[in-house]
Write a structure and sequence with these properties.
- The longest helix has 16 residues.
- The protein has a single domain, classed as YqgF/RNase H-like domain (Nucleotidyltransferase, domain 5), CATH 3.30.420.
- By secondary structure, it is of the alpha/beta class.
- A five-stranded mixed sheet has the order 3-2-1-4-5, sandwiched between helices.
- 36% of the residues lie in helices and 22% in strands.
Length: 156
């Protein structure tokens, strides 16, 4: 008898005023990958697009990047993002969790610029979402190898 495997994923969002970057984890929750960019039109359509992804990919948790200021305070964009995430939570039954995203957009821009092909426009929103999600995955599922199995471990 073949046992049915329930594949689940975690969704990462980089919420901006114009676009929402979307990333998905692999089924094991180890690797985040840029998935798509949602061009914002109206809040209800935005929420529905995210809910559709949640259902289609069996998402169990939504991670929303929180643009906290470098000094740890919440600026205007963080307040907008919190409001958006709180409203999104009303549209879905999966948990919506905030993840500090300081410098993720800067890093995503750098990575996309380095990897892009000449003549292509830069879209870093989904890459920023993947960085946010990867940070969350690394914190929530640390990979710990015993020292004897880690080739980089050496005793002094």
């Amino acid at each position: 008898m073949v046992e049915e495997v329930n594949i689940t994923r975690v969704l990462g969002l980089d919420v901006g005023d114009v676009r929402i970057g979307v990333a998905l984890s692999d089924p094991l929750g180890i690797l985040a990958t840029p998935f798509t960019i949602i061009t914002r039109s109206n809040s209800e359509a935005d929420y529905q697009a995210i809910v559709n992804i949640v259902h289609e990919y069996n998402v169990t948790c939504i991670i929303v990047g929180m643009p906290i200021n470098m000094n740890g305070t919440n600026g205007p964009q963080a307040v907008k993002t919190m409001t958006y995430a709180q409203e999104l939570a009303r549209y879905t039954d999966v948990p919506v969790i905030y993840q500090d995203e300081r410098l993720s957009t800067v890093e995503a821009r750098r990575m996309v610029r380095e990897a892009r092909k000449p003549g292509r426009t830069e879209r870093y929103d989904a890459a920023a979402a993947a960085l946010i999600l990867q940070d969350y995955l690394n914190i929530s599922n640390p990979v710990n190898m015993p020292p004897e199995e880690n080739e980089y471990f050496s005793e002094a």
